[in-house]
# Entry
Amino acid sequence: MTLKKNTTEKYQGFEQGPIRPPSEAHSLLVRVTRNCPWNRCTFCPVYKDTRFSIRPKDHVIKDIDSVYRGVEVIQKTAREKGNVSPTEIPIAAENGDSLDPGAYSAALSWIRGGMRSVFIQDANSLIIKPGDLVEILVHLKTRFPWIERITSYARSHTIARISDVNLKAIRNAGLNRIHIGLESGSDTVLKMTRKGVNKETHIKAGLKVKRAGMELSEYVMPGLGGKAHSKEHALETADALNRIDPDFIRLRTLAIPNSVTLYDDFETGRFEKCTDLMMAEEILLFIESLNGITGMLKSDHILNLFQNLEGRFPEDKKKMLDIVRRFLAMTPDRQCVYQVGRRFGYFSRLGDMDNPRRLERAEKACRQFGITPENVDEVIDELMKRFI
Ligand code: SF4
# Structure
Protein backbone atom coordinates (compact mmCIF):
# COMPACT_ATOMS: atom_id res chain seq x y z
CA MET A 1 0.00 0.00 0.00
CA THR A 2 1.36 3.46 -0.92
CA LEU A 3 0.61 6.05 1.71
CA LYS A 4 0.58 9.66 0.63
CA LYS A 5 0.51 12.62 2.93
CA ASN A 6 -2.00 15.31 2.16
CA THR A 7 0.40 18.22 1.85
CA THR A 8 -2.32 20.72 0.90
CA GLU A 9 -4.54 19.99 3.89
CA LYS A 10 -5.45 23.04 5.99
CA TYR A 11 -5.00 22.89 9.74
CA GLN A 12 -8.44 22.52 11.36
CA GLY A 13 -7.38 22.66 14.99
CA PHE A 14 -6.49 20.17 17.69
CA GLU A 15 -7.64 16.60 17.00
CA GLN A 16 -8.12 13.43 18.99
CA GLY A 17 -8.91 9.94 17.72
CA PRO A 18 -11.69 7.67 19.03
CA ILE A 19 -9.81 5.17 21.19
CA ARG A 20 -6.87 4.50 23.47
CA PRO A 21 -5.93 1.46 25.57
CA PRO A 22 -7.60 1.40 29.03
CA SER A 23 -4.15 1.82 30.59
CA GLU A 24 -3.81 5.21 28.84
CA ALA A 25 -6.84 6.78 30.54
CA HIS A 26 -4.71 9.59 31.99
CA SER A 27 -2.52 10.15 28.94
CA LEU A 28 -2.50 13.12 26.61
CA LEU A 29 -3.71 11.87 23.22
CA VAL A 30 -1.66 13.12 20.29
CA ARG A 31 -3.14 12.24 16.91
CA VAL A 32 -0.52 11.55 14.27
CA THR A 33 -2.66 9.54 11.85
CA ARG A 34 -6.40 9.14 11.40
CA ASN A 35 -8.08 5.74 11.58
CA CYS A 36 -6.55 2.42 10.56
CA PRO A 37 -4.55 1.77 7.38
CA TRP A 38 -5.56 -1.91 7.45
CA ASN A 39 -9.17 -1.77 8.65
CA ARG A 40 -10.04 -5.32 7.60
CA CYS A 41 -10.05 -7.34 10.84
CA THR A 42 -13.43 -9.07 10.91
CA PHE A 43 -13.99 -8.51 14.64
CA CYS A 44 -13.06 -4.80 14.76
CA PRO A 45 -15.80 -2.14 14.81
CA VAL A 46 -13.64 0.90 15.56
CA TYR A 47 -12.78 2.44 12.19
CA LYS A 48 -15.54 1.03 9.96
CA ASP A 49 -16.43 3.32 7.04
CA THR A 50 -13.52 5.65 7.69
CA ARG A 51 -10.54 6.51 5.53
CA PHE A 52 -6.99 6.35 6.74
CA SER A 53 -4.80 9.44 6.48
CA ILE A 54 -1.51 10.72 7.80
CA ARG A 55 -1.74 14.14 9.40
CA PRO A 56 0.88 16.62 8.23
CA LYS A 57 3.73 16.70 10.72
CA ASP A 58 3.38 20.47 11.15
CA HIS A 59 -0.26 20.03 12.21
CA VAL A 60 0.74 17.56 14.93
CA ILE A 61 3.41 20.01 16.09
CA LYS A 62 0.73 22.74 16.21
CA ASP A 63 -1.48 20.46 18.33
CA ILE A 64 1.37 19.92 20.77
CA ASP A 65 2.03 23.66 20.92
CA SER A 66 -1.67 24.35 21.58
CA VAL A 67 -1.68 21.93 24.48
CA TYR A 68 1.52 23.52 25.75
CA ARG A 69 -0.16 26.94 25.74
CA GLY A 70 -3.21 25.43 27.41
CA VAL A 71 -1.07 23.93 30.17
CA GLU A 72 0.74 27.24 30.69
CA VAL A 73 -2.49 29.25 30.92
CA ILE A 74 -4.21 26.74 33.21
CA GLN A 75 -1.25 26.57 35.56
CA LYS A 76 -0.97 30.38 35.64
CA THR A 77 -4.71 30.76 36.30
CA ALA A 78 -4.58 28.12 39.03
CA ARG A 79 -1.66 29.92 40.67
CA GLU A 80 -3.44 33.30 40.54
CA LYS A 81 -7.06 32.29 41.22
CA GLY A 82 -6.71 28.93 42.90
CA ASN A 83 -9.22 27.26 40.56
CA VAL A 84 -9.73 26.71 36.84
CA SER A 85 -13.08 26.54 35.07
CA PRO A 86 -13.49 23.47 32.87
CA THR A 87 -16.08 25.30 30.73
CA GLU A 88 -14.77 28.87 30.41
CA ILE A 89 -11.79 28.94 28.09
CA PRO A 90 -9.52 31.88 28.90
CA ILE A 91 -7.59 34.00 26.42
CA ALA A 92 -3.89 33.23 26.23
CA ALA A 93 -2.22 36.10 28.06
CA GLU A 94 0.85 36.84 25.92
CA ASN A 95 -0.65 37.61 22.51
CA GLY A 96 -4.40 37.72 23.02
CA ASP A 97 -5.09 34.64 20.85
CA SER A 98 -7.94 32.39 21.87
CA LEU A 99 -6.90 28.99 23.01
CA ASP A 100 -7.98 26.03 20.90
CA PRO A 101 -10.98 24.61 22.87
CA GLY A 102 -10.02 20.99 22.13
CA ALA A 103 -6.43 21.54 23.18
CA TYR A 104 -7.54 23.44 26.29
CA SER A 105 -9.80 20.64 27.43
CA ALA A 106 -7.10 18.03 26.64
CA ALA A 107 -4.60 20.10 28.65
CA LEU A 108 -7.03 20.32 31.56
CA SER A 109 -7.63 16.57 31.74
CA TRP A 110 -3.96 15.87 31.24
CA ILE A 111 -3.03 18.15 34.15
CA ARG A 112 -5.62 16.38 36.29
CA GLY A 113 -4.09 13.03 35.27
CA GLY A 114 -0.64 14.14 36.40
CA MET A 115 0.89 14.88 32.95
CA ARG A 116 3.10 11.82 33.05
CA SER A 117 2.14 9.95 29.87
CA VAL A 118 1.24 10.51 26.22
CA PHE A 119 -0.50 8.16 23.81
CA ILE A 120 0.15 8.59 20.09
CA GLN A 121 -2.96 7.91 17.97
CA ASP A 122 -4.61 6.31 15.98
CA ALA A 123 -4.39 2.58 15.20
CA ASN A 124 -0.90 2.29 13.73
CA SER A 125 1.21 5.41 14.25
CA LEU A 126 4.47 3.70 13.35
CA ILE A 127 3.38 3.65 9.72
CA ILE A 128 4.55 7.27 9.27
CA LYS A 129 8.12 8.02 8.23
CA PRO A 130 10.44 7.19 11.14
CA GLY A 131 12.12 10.61 10.78
CA ASP A 132 8.76 12.41 11.14
CA LEU A 133 7.85 10.39 14.20
CA VAL A 134 11.23 11.15 15.74
CA GLU A 135 10.68 14.90 15.15
CA ILE A 136 7.24 14.76 16.75
CA LEU A 137 8.57 12.86 19.75
CA VAL A 138 11.49 15.23 20.18
CA HIS A 139 9.10 18.19 20.07
CA LEU A 140 6.88 16.58 22.70
CA LYS A 141 9.83 15.99 24.99
CA THR A 142 11.08 19.53 24.43
CA ARG A 143 7.71 21.03 25.34
CA PHE A 144 7.07 18.62 28.22
CA PRO A 145 10.44 17.33 29.43
CA TRP A 146 8.86 15.64 32.46
CA ILE A 147 6.90 13.06 30.44
CA GLU A 148 7.76 9.57 31.69
CA ARG A 149 5.96 7.40 29.16
CA ILE A 150 5.04 7.76 25.50
CA THR A 151 3.16 4.88 23.94
CA SER A 152 1.41 3.92 20.73
CA TYR A 153 -0.58 1.18 19.04
CA ALA A 154 1.22 -0.49 16.16
CA ARG A 155 0.62 -3.41 13.83
CA SER A 156 3.16 -6.24 13.85
CA HIS A 157 3.19 -6.12 10.05
CA THR A 158 4.41 -2.50 10.17
CA ILE A 159 6.97 -3.00 12.94
CA ALA A 160 8.47 -6.00 11.16
CA ARG A 161 9.30 -3.70 8.23
CA ILE A 162 11.02 -0.96 10.26
CA SER A 163 14.80 -1.32 10.50
CA ASP A 164 16.33 -1.92 13.93
CA VAL A 165 18.23 1.37 13.56
CA ASN A 166 15.04 3.36 12.96
CA LEU A 167 13.16 1.63 15.74
CA LYS A 168 16.01 2.41 18.12
CA ALA A 169 15.96 6.07 16.98
CA ILE A 170 12.21 6.19 17.73
CA ARG A 171 12.90 4.68 21.15
CA ASN A 172 15.68 7.17 21.85
CA ALA A 173 13.37 10.04 20.89
CA GLY A 174 10.95 8.96 23.64
CA LEU A 175 8.52 6.24 22.50
CA ASN A 176 8.99 3.70 25.25
CA ARG A 177 5.95 1.41 25.06
CA ILE A 178 4.14 -0.21 22.14
CA HIS A 179 0.72 -1.87 22.26
CA ILE A 180 0.26 -4.57 19.63
CA GLY A 181 -3.02 -6.28 18.83
CA LEU A 182 -1.64 -9.80 18.68
CA GLU A 183 -5.18 -11.20 19.19
CA SER A 184 -4.04 -14.75 18.40
CA GLY A 185 -0.91 -16.76 17.70
CA SER A 186 -2.82 -19.26 15.57
CA ASP A 187 -2.31 -18.83 11.83
CA THR A 188 -5.75 -20.38 11.26
CA VAL A 189 -7.43 -17.77 13.48
CA LEU A 190 -5.34 -14.88 12.14
CA LYS A 191 -6.25 -15.83 8.58
CA MET A 192 -9.90 -16.44 9.40
CA THR A 193 -10.23 -13.01 11.03
CA ARG A 194 -8.23 -11.20 8.31
CA LYS A 195 -5.70 -9.84 10.77
CA GLY A 196 -3.23 -9.37 7.90
CA VAL A 197 -0.32 -10.89 9.78
CA ASN A 198 0.86 -14.39 10.70
CA LYS A 199 2.34 -15.89 13.85
CA GLU A 200 5.97 -15.61 12.70
CA THR A 201 5.57 -11.90 11.87
CA HIS A 202 3.95 -11.32 15.26
CA ILE A 203 6.96 -12.97 16.92
CA LYS A 204 9.45 -11.08 14.74
CA ALA A 205 7.78 -7.74 15.52
CA GLY A 206 7.53 -8.44 19.25
CA LEU A 207 11.21 -9.35 19.48
CA LYS A 208 12.17 -6.23 17.51
CA VAL A 209 10.28 -3.97 19.91
CA LYS A 210 12.06 -5.55 22.85
CA ARG A 211 15.45 -5.32 21.11
CA ALA A 212 14.85 -1.60 20.60
CA GLY A 213 14.48 -1.26 24.37
CA MET A 214 10.75 -0.48 24.42
CA GLU A 215 8.16 -2.01 26.71
CA LEU A 216 5.85 -4.33 24.86
CA SER A 217 2.17 -4.85 25.53
CA GLU A 218 0.41 -7.62 23.55
CA TYR A 219 -3.39 -7.79 23.35
CA VAL A 220 -4.95 -11.24 23.29
CA MET A 221 -8.58 -11.87 22.40
CA PRO A 222 -10.11 -14.86 24.23
CA GLY A 223 -12.84 -16.46 22.13
CA LEU A 224 -11.54 -15.27 18.75
CA GLY A 225 -11.16 -18.83 17.42
CA GLY A 226 -14.79 -19.63 18.17
CA LYS A 227 -15.77 -23.13 19.24
CA ALA A 228 -13.96 -24.69 16.29
CA HIS A 229 -10.50 -23.29 17.02
CA SER A 230 -10.64 -22.51 20.72
CA LYS A 231 -7.96 -25.03 21.71
CA GLU A 232 -5.60 -24.15 18.86
CA HIS A 233 -6.11 -20.45 19.63
CA ALA A 234 -5.12 -20.96 23.28
CA LEU A 235 -2.09 -23.15 22.54
CA GLU A 236 -0.68 -21.20 19.61
CA THR A 237 -1.19 -17.84 21.30
CA ALA A 238 0.62 -19.07 24.40
CA ASP A 239 3.42 -20.44 22.20
CA ALA A 240 3.86 -17.10 20.39
CA LEU A 241 3.95 -15.23 23.70
CA ASN A 242 6.39 -17.73 25.22
CA ARG A 243 8.73 -16.90 22.35
CA ILE A 244 8.26 -13.13 22.66
CA ASP A 245 8.06 -12.75 26.46
CA PRO A 246 6.33 -9.35 26.36
CA ASP A 247 6.17 -7.03 29.36
CA PHE A 248 2.37 -7.14 29.37
CA ILE A 249 -0.23 -9.57 28.07
CA ARG A 250 -3.63 -7.89 28.08
CA LEU A 251 -6.89 -9.79 27.70
CA ARG A 252 -9.79 -8.28 25.79
CA THR A 253 -12.60 -10.78 25.26
CA LEU A 254 -14.28 -11.12 21.87
CA ALA A 255 -17.66 -9.45 21.44
CA ILE A 256 -19.57 -9.35 18.16
CA PRO A 257 -21.56 -6.15 17.60
CA ASN A 258 -23.82 -5.92 14.54
CA SER A 259 -21.39 -3.55 12.81
CA VAL A 260 -18.49 -5.99 12.35
CA THR A 261 -17.95 -8.35 9.42
CA LEU A 262 -17.80 -11.33 11.77
CA TYR A 263 -21.42 -10.69 12.73
CA ASP A 264 -22.67 -12.17 9.42
CA ASP A 265 -20.73 -15.38 10.06
CA PHE A 266 -22.07 -15.42 13.61
CA GLU A 267 -25.65 -14.91 12.44
CA THR A 268 -25.47 -17.59 9.76
CA GLY A 269 -23.76 -20.06 12.09
CA ARG A 270 -20.46 -20.13 10.19
CA PHE A 271 -18.81 -18.77 13.33
CA GLU A 272 -19.90 -20.44 16.55
CA LYS A 273 -19.15 -18.22 19.50
CA CYS A 274 -17.74 -19.79 22.67
CA THR A 275 -19.94 -19.66 25.75
CA ASP A 276 -18.46 -18.02 28.86
CA LEU A 277 -17.81 -21.49 30.22
CA MET A 278 -15.81 -22.46 27.12
CA MET A 279 -14.03 -19.10 27.27
CA ALA A 280 -13.00 -19.86 30.85
CA GLU A 281 -11.71 -23.28 29.75
CA GLU A 282 -9.81 -21.61 26.91
CA ILE A 283 -8.25 -19.06 29.28
CA LEU A 284 -7.29 -21.87 31.66
CA LEU A 285 -5.51 -23.74 28.87
CA PHE A 286 -3.89 -20.52 27.70
CA ILE A 287 -2.47 -19.64 31.11
CA GLU A 288 -1.42 -23.23 31.76
CA SER A 289 0.53 -23.11 28.49
CA LEU A 290 2.38 -19.86 29.25
CA ASN A 291 5.84 -20.95 30.31
CA GLY A 292 9.27 -19.39 30.71
CA ILE A 293 7.95 -15.82 30.62
CA THR A 294 8.39 -13.01 33.11
CA GLY A 295 5.79 -10.37 32.17
CA MET A 296 2.45 -9.34 33.67
CA LEU A 297 -0.96 -10.63 32.65
CA LYS A 298 -3.57 -7.87 32.82
CA SER A 299 -7.33 -8.12 32.55
CA ASP A 300 -8.18 -4.43 32.32
CA HIS A 301 -11.17 -4.55 30.01
CA ILE A 302 -14.86 -4.39 30.93
CA LEU A 303 -15.62 -7.30 28.57
CA ASN A 304 -13.48 -9.74 30.54
CA LEU A 305 -15.10 -12.29 32.80
CA PHE A 306 -12.52 -12.01 35.59
CA GLN A 307 -11.22 -8.53 36.27
CA ASN A 308 -8.76 -9.75 38.90
CA LEU A 309 -7.11 -12.28 36.60
CA GLU A 310 -3.85 -10.42 36.92
CA GLY A 311 -0.36 -11.20 38.03
CA ARG A 312 3.28 -11.65 37.13
CA PHE A 313 4.76 -14.76 35.63
CA PRO A 314 5.92 -17.15 36.88
CA GLU A 315 5.16 -16.44 40.55
CA ASP A 316 1.44 -15.62 40.18
CA LYS A 317 0.58 -18.30 37.62
CA LYS A 318 -0.99 -20.66 40.16
CA LYS A 319 -3.02 -17.86 41.74
CA MET A 320 -4.41 -16.92 38.30
CA LEU A 321 -5.20 -20.52 37.39
CA ASP A 322 -7.00 -20.98 40.72
CA ILE A 323 -9.37 -18.09 39.88
CA VAL A 324 -10.48 -19.76 36.65
CA ARG A 325 -10.62 -23.23 38.23
CA ARG A 326 -12.82 -21.91 41.01
CA PHE A 327 -15.32 -20.57 38.46
CA LEU A 328 -15.28 -23.83 36.49
CA ALA A 329 -15.93 -25.83 39.68
CA MET A 330 -19.09 -23.87 40.57
CA THR A 331 -22.61 -25.22 39.91
CA PRO A 332 -24.28 -23.99 36.66
CA ASP A 333 -26.65 -21.81 38.74
CA ARG A 334 -23.77 -20.10 40.58
CA GLN A 335 -21.86 -19.63 37.32
CA CYS A 336 -24.96 -18.04 35.80
CA VAL A 337 -25.35 -15.62 38.72
CA TYR A 338 -21.66 -14.69 38.50
CA GLN A 339 -21.85 -14.08 34.74
CA VAL A 340 -24.88 -11.83 35.17
CA GLY A 341 -23.41 -10.02 38.19
CA ARG A 342 -20.18 -9.43 36.32
CA ARG A 343 -21.87 -8.06 33.21
CA PHE A 344 -24.27 -5.87 35.19
CA GLY A 345 -21.29 -4.44 37.06
CA TYR A 346 -22.17 -5.90 40.49
CA PHE A 347 -19.10 -8.16 40.54
CA SER A 348 -15.60 -7.72 39.27
CA ARG A 349 -14.23 -10.90 40.84
CA LEU A 350 -15.56 -14.19 42.22
CA GLY A 351 -14.99 -13.00 45.79
CA ASP A 352 -17.70 -10.35 45.24
CA MET A 353 -20.27 -13.16 45.41
CA ASP A 354 -19.55 -13.37 49.16
CA ASN A 355 -21.02 -9.89 49.55
CA PRO A 356 -24.76 -10.55 50.34
CA ARG A 357 -25.96 -7.22 48.89
CA ARG A 358 -24.17 -7.68 45.59
CA LEU A 359 -25.22 -11.31 45.38
CA GLU A 360 -28.84 -10.38 45.96
CA ARG A 361 -28.70 -7.78 43.17
CA ALA A 362 -27.29 -10.33 40.71
CA GLU A 363 -29.87 -12.95 41.71
CA LYS A 364 -32.61 -10.36 41.40
CA ALA A 365 -31.43 -9.48 37.86
CA CYS A 366 -31.56 -13.17 36.93
CA ARG A 367 -35.15 -13.41 38.22
CA GLN A 368 -36.24 -10.11 36.68
CA PHE A 369 -34.92 -10.89 33.18
CA GLY A 370 -35.61 -14.62 33.29
CA ILE A 371 -31.94 -15.49 32.95
CA THR A 372 -31.06 -19.14 33.48
CA PRO A 373 -27.96 -21.28 32.84
CA GLU A 374 -29.62 -22.24 29.53
CA ASN A 375 -30.01 -18.70 28.09
CA VAL A 376 -27.35 -16.73 29.99
CA ASP A 377 -24.83 -16.53 27.13
CA GLU A 378 -27.44 -15.24 24.71
CA VAL A 379 -28.49 -12.46 27.11
CA ILE A 380 -24.87 -11.60 27.88
CA ASP A 381 -24.01 -11.30 24.19
CA GLU A 382 -26.58 -8.54 23.91
CA LEU A 383 -25.24 -6.80 27.01
CA MET A 384 -21.62 -6.98 25.87
CA LYS A 385 -22.38 -5.14 22.65
CA ARG A 386 -23.05 -2.04 24.74
CA PHE A 387 -19.47 -1.92 25.97
CA ILE A 388 -17.65 -2.07 22.64
S1 SF4 B 1 -5.50 -3.46 12.74
FE1 SF4 B 1 -6.45 -2.95 14.72
S2 SF4 B 1 -7.62 -1.09 14.35
FE2 SF4 B 1 -7.11 -1.96 12.34
S3 SF4 B 1 -8.89 -3.18 11.80
FE3 SF4 B 1 -7.45 -4.54 12.82
S4 SF4 B 1 -8.01 -4.51 14.99
FE4 SF4 B 1 -9.03 -2.75 14.02
